[in-house]
């Protein structure tokens, strides 16, 4: 991510150059705002629409909250590592926690009638709705890695439902 000396006169970025940021945050919910702000800045610098940015940031918020709550068990001594890369109309986000990992097959489907009224449990569902691609894997030292991509102009589940 680039620094701006005068926010009212941003330095132009070459259209073909990648934008990226690397964050290492302690597992505190208030740090989600830091990650959101970094991603919003990258999306603005890349010229993304407000709608695209909103859905991308919502997916980031869900992934980061899951890393803090479920992965790191809200232990502020553990970190969440977040990488952003914006290039050629595509946003890639990688969120890694230091938890024990989980089995994706054991996560209930929030659209099942028995789970519709539950106040939580929709994070993975939302990520999949708002992003073009979402993949889960084990981090090399343990924990979970979530990699998400959104291509501008590509259909996502949420864009299909808007029509």
List the helices and strands and how they pair.
Layout lengths: L18 E8 L5 H15 L3 H22 L7 E9 L2 E7 L26 H8 L2 E6 L5 E8 L5 H6 L1
Antiparallel strand pairs: 1-2, 2-3, 3-5, 4-5
Helix pairs in contact: 1-2, 2-3
Key phrases:
163 residues; Heat Shock Protein 90; five-stranded antiparallel β-sheet; 4 helices; 5 strands; disordered N terminus
Summarize the structure.
By secondary structure, the chain is an alpha+beta fold. The chain has helices spanning 32-46, 50-71, 123-130, 157-162, and strands at 19-26, 79-87, 90-96, 133-138, 144-151.
Overview of the molecule:
This protein is of the alpha+beta class and 163 residues long. The chain has a single domain, classed as Heat Shock Protein 90. Helix content is 31%, strand content 23%. The protein has four helices and five strands, in the order E-H-H-E-E-H-E-E-H. The protein has helices at residues 32-46, 50-71, 123-130, 157-162; strands at 19-26, 79-87, 90-96, 133-138, 144-151. The protein has a five-stranded antiparallel beta sheet with strand order 1-2-3-5-4, covered by helices on one side. A hairpin with a 5-residue loop joins strand 4 and strand 5. Helix 1 runs antiparallel to helix 2 (50-71) and helix 2 packs antiparallel against helix 3. It is globular. The N and C termini lie far apart (34 Å). Residues 1-15 have low confidence and may be disordered.
């Amino acid at each position: 991510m680039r620094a701006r000396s005068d926010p009212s006169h941003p330095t132009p970025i070459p259209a073909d150059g990648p934008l990226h940021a690397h964050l290492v945050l302690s597992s505190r919910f208030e740090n989600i705002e830091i990650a959101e702000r970094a991603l919003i800045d990258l999306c603005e610098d890349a010229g993304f629409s407000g709608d695209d940015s909103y859905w991308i940031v919502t997916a980031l918020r869900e992934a980061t909250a899951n890393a803090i709550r479920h992965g790191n068990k809200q232990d502020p001594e553990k970190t969440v590592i977040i990488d952003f890369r914006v290039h050629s109309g595509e946003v890639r986000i990688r969120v890694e926690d230091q938890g024990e990992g989980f089995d994706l097959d054991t996560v209930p489907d929030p659209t099942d009638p028995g789970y519709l009224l539950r106040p939580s449990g929709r994070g993975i569902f939302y990520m999949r709705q708002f992003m073009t691609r979402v993949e889960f894997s084990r981090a090399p030292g343990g924990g979970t890695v979530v990699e998400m991509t959104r291509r501008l102009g590509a259909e996502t589940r949420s864009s299909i439902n808007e029509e």
